Amino acid sequence: MNTLYEAAKEISDFLDAKEWRFCIIGGLAVARWGEPRTTVDVDLTLMTGFGNEEGYARVLLDRFRPRVERALNFAMEHRVLLLYASNGRDLDISFGAFPFEEQMMHRASAFEFAAGIELVTCSAEDLFVLKVFADRNKDWADAESVAIRQRLDRQYVLKHLRPLCELKESPDILARAERLLKESP
Predict the structure, then answer these.
(1) pLDDT at position 96
(2) Is the pTM of the predicted complex or chain greater than 0.90?
(3) How do the domains of the chain map onto residue ranges?
(4) Which fold has domain 1-122?
(5) Average pLDDT for runs of 10 along the chain of length 185
């Protein structure tokens, strides 16, 4: 079995057993919706809300080995918990709380990556929003591959991207995303 899929299944099974809401984002979601590329970690968003992050983090730290010193403090400061799966693969768990992330959880769906490996990923539109909002070269390339391979609901994308860009005070991200969507099939 692919060790990345194995790590993703391990964390997914753990979160499912806790009945916590989450979905896979990042490179594994890109493999589903865009041009597959090499990725070295499992990225996911876990709905914690605001003010509940520490409780979630402590439970996860009881089960998974941290990747950084003072992992709990790092997670509270950056809203991401950095862990290792039991096979040594990296797990990046972002704490979700925004309305967009709530919507993302409702739209997430299962996908079979390999025999016996079914993982819940965000939708193609939500992945596009996450990628362009991250605003890094590799994320723009991922967003473009998703836009080319999927028929995205442009209205949904812009509805959710606009307030995020306003919050980040980055209107240039929104303008670039609109151009990318117009150029896509």
Answers:
(1) 97
(2) yes
(3) 1-122, 124-185
(4) Beta Polymerase; domain 2 (3.30.460)
(5) 92 98 97 92 97 97 98 98 98 96 97 95 98 96 97 96 93 95 88
